[in-house]
Amino acid sequence: MSTPSPDVLALLQATLDAVVITDDRGRILAFNASAEEMFGYRAIDALGRNVSMLMTANDRLEHDDHLKRYLAGGEARVLGKGRDVRVRHRDGSDFSVFLSVGRIPNSDPPVFVGYLHDTTLRRKALATLENERRLNRLYLDLAQVMLVATDRGGTVQLMNQRTVRVLKKSDDDIVGNSWVDTFVTPEDRPAARAAFRALLMSGSDEPLSCEYHVRASDGEDRFITWRGVALRDAENVATGVMLSGEDITDQRRAESEAHKALERMNSVARLATMGEMAAGISHELNQPLAAIANYAQACVRMLRNPAPDMPEISGALEQISGQALRAGEIIRRIRSLSRNEDVRRESHDINDLIRDVHALLASDARVHDGRLVLDLAEALSKVKVDRVQIQQVLINLVHNAFEAQGEPAYRPDGTPFEVRIATAATESGDIEVSVSDIGPGLAEEMQTKIFEPFFTTKATGTGLGLAISRSIIKAHDARLGYRANQPRGACFYFVLPAHLEPRQ
Amino acid sequence: MKEHSPTVYVVDDDDAVRNSLKLLLKSAGIAAETSASAPEFLGAYDAAQPGCLVLDVRMPGMSGLEMQQELNVRGAMIPVIFITGHGDIPMAVEAMQHGAFDFLQKPFRDSELLDRVNRALTRDAESRTRLRHTDRIRERLASLSPREREVLDLVTQGKANKMVAGDLGVSQRTVEIHRAHVMQKMEAGSLAELVRMMMTVAPGP
């Protein structure tokens, strides 16, 4: 029995294909590592045994037949040709291999070498690869976002169905074209190019975001928000980019509509408030003006008398100057309220701030046949607030209170509807400001709802007053809250932190 | 019944407006009394006192309009001049529909106010005279006997003595005697005057 040389055996060990060497009687002379793995036998167990143990019953007969014929007449049925055969694993399972057999030159008696290539595995691998490709395609196409991959030069290599639908082009029209130059709107190309370059240069796997328009084949522009990452090779060199894009055209459009509607409502609300305020203000101003006119005309008449009552005339003139000052004061307060001052926080006495808007609020009270009562605690700490904003909140709350009084405004007992603005120090020395009324108050389920934008109980309300007020108070590190007023009615309150000024 | 001189009642919650109005009226020789609210006025008001009202439309509690309606309910006939601020025109229109005498927008000329006040006082005096006149006719009617009242009703319907006699089943002479008593008791100088008197006291259409 001739055994292959050690050189040959070493070579066989390194071969990835399974190699089995047999003598002229089918006994195994060599069994390499790949064969061990393929059949489940160790080489020492296989050596010397007949190769037929690796074959299925059918092939076993054929093998013996082939061998006999070859040895008898040299007819090479098998040698030199490759064929698919079924072979048997040590565990009894059959599998397919591609087998090629050759005779070692000049061997006599002949020694045969069989190369076995596991086609089951290869097919499986091929199938797996194909499957993965299909899955990948599926993932790409299932994605709700646009997915686009380009090479370093920006040429499209791959894209998904979403991209095809947004651009309204066929796959072939997209792949192979320059992404930026073909699909991005001309105005947005510089931005898109800059984003592309930033991605290639970034050196990080952190996605970069940008937004630009793409143009569909029908000329429609879609606004897309993009996230992109660089694709890298094994040496970490950027070979291209992968972009995922979300079409936010419709969303932006809706946002813009909503924004416009809000703007409109704001201006309507402002106008409505201004209209009501204007009525109140003009009434407020007409009172001193009417008094002045009356006093002056009375003076003229009294002076026509041959013996005029000088003390009475003098008193009337004093009244005139007093009423003129009253009118001036009203105007001054209105002006300081409506002046377009920048938002700025300054140290204020909250009571002064309330007294400043009292004239305006009192006119609101008058419009609603009500009474405004100030209940201001003395010796409060100062607060650091934006004066105009806090005054706006107070105007809002007082206005709401008067509107909430319900019908009838007139009470048979003659008591007018009353709204109270109160200030008080909390235990911690902060300042609570509250606006309370004696109206119907709020049902429990309404108490959180009323702060929502656009929620309103008024026929002509915009539902923004309380929402805006709450955000202003929030900006002052406080909270606009609601509690029931005692014995009845509603109470809105907020607590402003005391602002302790450094000693001079 | 003692006759008072007419008084202008000023109702306005604004001290300055109220007091200046009182002084202005006084300077024109018109007596004025002031109230700061509708309930205050209604509590003290004596319907027998002639005069007129100068009433602010907007007041806290009971408004001028509500006070006017309260006066209407009470059957008070005092003329009401509303004074309004700017922007109260719809209210003024409503006030006029409810029988207000007139309205003025603040601020106003003294002549505008005094002119209206004087006309309102004249109107009040006229209606009070008319009311007294009507009261007197009712008193005279009450003094007629049932038969005399029957005769009166028939002759003021335009029936001649002969037809009245036929209707009542009495002699024409008897009708003539009743008719003379009616003219005497009613202090009527002619049939035409008697008819006018009956129209004055007749319940409204």
Main structural class of chain B: alpha/beta
SS summary, helix count of chain A: 15
Strand content of chain A: 15-25%
The CATH homology group name of the largest domain in chain A: Histidine kinase-like ATPase, C-terminal domain
Brief write-up:
Chain A is of the alpha+beta class and 504 residues long. Chain A is 45% helix and 23% strand. Chain A folds into four domains: 6-124, Beta-Lactamase, CATH 3.30.450; 143-247, Beta-Lactamase; 250-339, Helix Hairpins (Orthogonal Bundle); 343-504, Histidine kinase-like ATPase, C-terminal domain (Heat Shock Protein 90, 2-Layer Sandwich).
Question: What report would you give on this structure?
Answer:
Chain A contains 15 helices and 17 strands. In chain A, α10 crosses α12, α11 packs across α12 and α12 runs parallel beside α13. Helices cover 45% and strands 23% of the residues of chain A. In chain A, the strands form four sheets. Chain A has a five-stranded antiparallel β-sheet with strand order 2-1-5-4-3. Chain A has a five-stranded antiparallel β-sheet with strand order 7-6-10-9-8. The model of chain A has no long low-confidence stretch (mean pLDDT 82). Chain A is rod-shaped. Chain B has 205 residues and is α/β, with parallel strands linked by helices. Chain B contains nine helices and five strands. In chain B, strands 2-1-3-4-5 form a five-stranded parallel β-sheet, with helices on both faces. In chain B, β4, α4 and β5 form a beta-alpha-beta unit. In chain B, α6 packs across α8 and α7 packs across α8. The model of chain B has no long low-confidence stretch (mean pLDDT 87). Classes of the chains: A alpha+beta (504), B alpha/beta (205). The interface between A and B is medium-sized, with 37 and 30 residues.
